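Regression test case RT-17, inverse folding.

Input:
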């Protein structure tokens, strides 16, 4: 379990390199949108940070 925690603190991903996710900030709220191959919006996640928005998007998928 400690290895997982250490990996989380040292792993950096450029969120803008992720395919099919559109990120934006609107009125200090982060919005992440899952899109299809044509760019149509499928599902959105919201949060006070990019991480919260991605977690909200993931929660909405489950």
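Golden output:
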């Amino acid at each position: 379990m400690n290895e997982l925690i250490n990996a989380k603190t040292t792993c950096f991903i450029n969120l803008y390199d992720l395919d099919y996710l559109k990120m934006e900030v609107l009125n200090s709220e982060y919005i992440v949108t899952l899109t299809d191959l044509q760019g149509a919006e499928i599902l959105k996640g919201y949060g006070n940070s990019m991480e919260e928005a991605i977690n909200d998007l993931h929660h909405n998928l489950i």
